[in-house]
Specification:
The protein has 381 residues and is α/β, with parallel strands linked by helices. The chain contains 16 helices and 13 strands. It is 37% helix and 16% strand. Helix 1 links the parallel strand 1 (10-14) and strand 2. The two termini are 28 Å apart.
């Protein structure tokens, strides 16, 4: 069996729903032993749906692979004691309660790290451990709204639009995993752990560098532009006879190739589109000029033409199309793993491919409390 990067690292996972479980899944994918602590009724995402696969939530299955599930009730002093015993032997504790909740239970960072200073304690919350809003509950929707993300998503003059993908949740999970690994590297150098603090709001704001650049450069809040890029053009979806497809032209040579490919070489010299700043200012006029042509052929015809001319372009796929795509399958971005009660279940693959120590989907998501006896026996000694 190939060695994995995080072999031997124990992560005690007190998270639920999305941001925290996504963080710990990333760590588990790279070999960490993730012990998922669930309340007696289980992670709230076990009840999220439909869809359900058998009796299990498809949402829970999606982000809880490579974990072991134990049941602990933090309302019971004996279960708090068990948790402390496990934490004393863990490398990392991850939680996504409101700041202060774990401390009130006597298992906050100040308690767990007092006799275990090498412990890495990771807090993922709506607004962070400090600041005016730290005690507020937070969800992806709230963070998207307060980060400015919803103000720049959608089409001009449309109502606010939330990104369908939970970007605040997912980015908080990724930043938390990044922080965990950074703290772990420091621990390897010094033997000292630390507290890692990130939030949905911080993470969502961190995803807005282009929008922040536009605001700081102009002094005006950026507006939504549909699928168009705010710094380069043409870089958006265009209509064909039978749907839409994407063209991404990020420099002058690409623009010249596009104009020649669609039979409109005169656009290269058009003063409205002579360089990228001009095209960004006049992107809606450019969109109309290009769509006069793109509406004359099918998406597949245009993609073949543009690929032949080395113009960056691509289809807009639905999820069924994605999971049938030959390249996606060649990159192992769809995998299957045996579940305890459901048989084979599908998983998204691991996007980061390591040449010497690759990650692996070793286990499907656990059933509730599946590993309680095993873990309690191991950590009671």
């Amino acid at each position: 069996m190939n060695e994995m990067p995080l072999d031997g690292v124990t992560v005690l996972d007190c998270t639920q729903v999305m941001a925290g479980p996504f963080c710990t899944m990333l760590l588990g994918d790279m070999g960490a032993e993730v012990i998922k602590v669930e309340k007696p009724e289980g992670d709230d995402s076990r009840r999220m749906g439909p869809p359900f696969i058998g009796s299990e939530s498809a949402a829970f299955l999606a982000i809880n692979r490579n974990k072991k599930s134990i049941i602990l009730d933090f309302k019971k002093p004996e279960d708090v004691k068990i948790f402390k015993n496990i934490a004393a032997k863990a490398d990392v504790v991850v939680e996504n309660f409101r700041p202060g909740t774990m401390a009130r239970l006597g298992i906050g960072p100040e308690h767990l790290r007092k006799d275990h200073p090498e412990l890495i304690y990771v807090s993922i919350s709506g607004f962070g451990m400090t600041g005016k809003y730290s005690k507020r509950p937070g969800y992806d929707l709230i963070a998207q709204g307060m980060s400015g993300m919803m103000s720049v998503t959608g089409h001009p003059n449309s109502p606010p639009v939330k990104a369908s993908i939970p970007l605040a949740d997912l980015s908080a999970g990724m930043f938390a995993a990044f922080g965990t690994l950074s703290a772990y590297i420091y621990k390897l150098k010094t033997g000292i752990g630390q507290i890692v603090d990130t939030s949905l709001l911080d993470s969502a704001i961190a995803l807005t560098p282009w929008e922040a650049a536009e605001f700081w450069g102009t002094g005006k809040p950026p507006a939504p532009k549909g699928s168009a890029h705010r710094l380069v053009a043409p870089y958006q979806a265009f209509q064909s006879i039978d749907g839409y497809f994407n063209i991404g032209v990020a420099n002058q040579p690409n623009f010249a190739r596009l104009c020649n490919a669609i039979g409109r070489p005169e656009l290269i010299q058009d003063l409205r589109f002579k360089d990228n700043p001009s095209r960004v200012v006049n992107y809606q006029e450019l969109e109309k000029e290009i769509e006069l042509i793109t509406k004359t052929k099918t998406t597949s015809e245009w993609l073949a033409i543009l690929e032949a001319e080395n113009v960056p372009s691509g289809p807009i796929l639905n999820m069924e199309d994605v999971f049938k795509n030959e390249h996606v399958l060649q990159r192992d971005m769809v995998q299957q793993q045996q579940h305890t009660t459901l048989g084979l279940v599908n998983h998204l693959g691991i996007p980061t491919k390591l040449s010497a120590t690759p990650g692996k989907i070793r286990n499907a998501a656990p059933i509730l409390g599946e590993h309680t006896a095993e873990i309690l026996k191991r950590f009671s000694s």
